[in-house]
Amino acid sequence: xxxxxxxxxxxxxxxxxxxxxxxxxxxxxxxxxxxxxxxxxxxxxxxxxxxxxxxxxxxxxxxxxxxxxxxxx
Length: 73
Hints:
Order of helices and strands: HHH
Helix content: 55-70%
Number of strands: 0
Largest sheet: none
Distance between the termini: 76 Å
């Protein structure tokens, strides 16, 4: 059975390829530094400061952890 290639079939096929290419680019080009993710720039001391600022840890816990982190350097 022969198909009639009057351009319509090729056009629809071409649109499907464009959609697939767009989806793949969108998936792989999405930035990985999304909000609320720990960024690679954050150091343990920065995280500690944020936790203290949020009130998750007390001043004594902050000072103790800070001493430990600074002694490792």
